[in-house]
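Give me the fold.
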Amino acid sequence: MQRIFDAFNAAGKELYLVGGAVRDLARGVAMVELDDLDFCTNARPEHSLAILKGAGLTTYDVGLRFGTAGAVLDGPASGGFPKDCQVTTYRSEESYHQGSRKPEVTYGDTIEQDLGRRDFSINSIAMNESGEYHDPYGGLDDLKAGVLRVVGDPMETLAEDPLRILRVGRFMSKLGFDPVDALKEAAAERASWIMEISRERWFMEMSKLLVGPHPGKGLRFLEEVGVLAYILPEVTALVGFHESSPTHHKDLWAHTIGVIEQTEPERAQRWAGLLHDVGKVETREVVGGVPTFRGHEEVSARQTEEVAQRFTFDNGLRAEVCAIVENHGRPATYGPGWTDAAVRRLVRDLDPHAMATLRFARADCTSSIEERRAMARARIDELVGRIEGLERAEALRPRLPTGLGNTLMEAFTLRRGPVIGELMKGLTERIMDGVLESGREAGYYVEELRRDPPEALRGE
């Protein structure tokens, strides 16, 4: 970093480290653990880019028209390098038009102006090259107290950018902090304003909230202030749902949060945790005094597709989350009596998200009875072990040799068409059943069809 400070000093410009890096350093996070470094300066963006280039750094245009120039600090991996750096011109104002992801920026002249337009006091601390803090808004005290407080009037701050309500939840999840009463009251008052924010920005904040160490804390806040009802009404419907049942069943909201907190901190796992039981609201029936939720997985998957579209999931994330949600109950049906063929068929049905679904199914064990929870997890672990064993033996997924279709056409004097597909499918099923070996040469499969021809071949 000294190279960057030296370059701006030589150009006669101010430079401070700001944002999350300063906040985390003040919390005791080691510099090696910081991935991104944000700076601010009184240099205009084009000048900042020129200064960084003059220092011999790899640069990129991250958004000069919004005041930011980018550079990459290289170094040894043991030091946490490479590190992405962004240098932004002091701002006095920053606002977003309805539905836009791009800020409208007014440049400032002082570090105090720049820090004053930021959201929370804990993010409004700067550090100079000597490592001294510049903290005009009491952020260090709030870090020690573990509270979230905005700079300025909370009603005005949330009105300037209502996404900050989601950011409160995100930082609660990340840090385990609590908002001061005035901020919580303002968030409840401004909750409906979240609809003015682009869905892409919803997605970014919610994803960061979900993968934090304390996601339940952030989610409960969003529900309590009313924001969750606007952006995820499917999830809000779980709150208190058990109280409406004529006979007892578990609290689905508490279960949902419990599952999220037991999953690995990955986007797909956490989004699946949030949505896996939303279909139970639509499917609940009481049969013989017992509540049932038959078919809730399919309904949950349909609603997950709607959420994925609303939040602009990328295709990969959408496919993985929907697959986990639709199949999350299937691994729990496993028992020691399953044949290898049954295990192979389950993996075939779950692929390409089989292992992700199994990891999720393990996290979905939330019984309050420890023995029952341990038994459920042990079954999943046993299933995983069997899958891994079959995979090591190359007996998990059927493999037919390349060009087998052409070989079958020659061996049985067939034309290219549906019959070839049926023969290939039949061979795959025999491998799945353990009747045939996987990955053998083409002649092995030809001889099998001659020995035991299927209906499609006898018809020919």
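The CA atoms of residues 92 and 108 lie 4 Å apart.
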